[in-house]
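4.2 Preliminary Data

To establish feasibility before requesting continued support, the project team ran the inverse folding procedure on a target of 118 residues. The structure was first converted into the token representation described in Section 3, and no sequence information of any kind was made available to the design step. The complete token record follows.
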């Protein structure tokens, strides 16, 4: 798992084998990502790095527009719920529920990741 020092607390709450949030430089994160079997990411800069590296990836989208900001790679898939109010492109939900992200479950992502042809 990669992220900035600001991501350490939330990353610690997610079970994983290697939590490197805030412990790698960008160069190190890119080098390690190049060796990944698959990448699970949010809509972020590292999502685009994974696409550039042509790693199989699943990108999670909530309020941002997957068609506009999604990864540009034939090996990328995007997971979004498609609820009526998304994409709104707002960091703070104007409807005060953020269901577009909160209702995305780990099981949904794992199902998609398990379906990758490797």
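Position-by-position output of the design step:
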């Amino acid at each position: 798992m990669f992220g900035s020092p600001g991501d350490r607390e939330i990353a610690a709450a997610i079970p994983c084998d290697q939590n490197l949030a805030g412990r790698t430089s960008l160069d190190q994160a890119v080098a390690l990502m190049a060796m990944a079997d698959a990448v699970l990411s949010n809509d972020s800069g590292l999502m685009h790095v994974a696409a550039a590296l042509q790693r199989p990836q699943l990108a999670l989208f909530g309020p941002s527009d997957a068609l506009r900001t999604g990864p540009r790679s034939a090996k990328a898939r995007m997971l979004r719920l498609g609820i009526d109010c998304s994409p709104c492109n707002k960091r703070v939900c104007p409807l005060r529920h953020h269901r577009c992200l909160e209702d995305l479950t780990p099981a949904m992502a794992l199902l998609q990741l398990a379906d990758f042809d490797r």
